[in-house]
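Trying the structure run again after the queue cleared.
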Amino acid sequence: MQLSLVPPTATEFRDLYQQTGWRDVSLETCEAALAGTWLACTARDENGTVVGMGRLISDGVLHAFVTEMLVAESARGGGLGAQIIRMLVTAARERGVDDIQLFAARGRAAFYERNGFRRRPDDAPGMDLTDGDEGTAPTDAA
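Done. Tokens:
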């Protein structure tokens, strides 16, 4: 598996979006979304096919927001999602952004908790990335 901070093409993004059960999106929508991306991590298999990706949007100074974490069904269970989120977090921190947030899809909060995020109080939406002192340190488990 090859991970890089090179974003997928709009076609690859759309194909992975649809393969993972998210809504049907147009190629134009994918192009616009990628144009607004601050950081993307793409995972390609031995054939060069995109099998996973994560995407951050950010002001580049204070905050970053995980907008997608997508892993093809065929690539799940081996820690790929954890590798993608870890690469995105590292790249954001290297650029000076430590406040990384997300809204976890239904049933996916435990994955993010295993990878250093913590739930906010019931009266606050989303999750924040911890530095390991308040939550579980990032792991390879997906």
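The chain has one domain: 2-129. Worth checking whether this holds up in the mutant runs.
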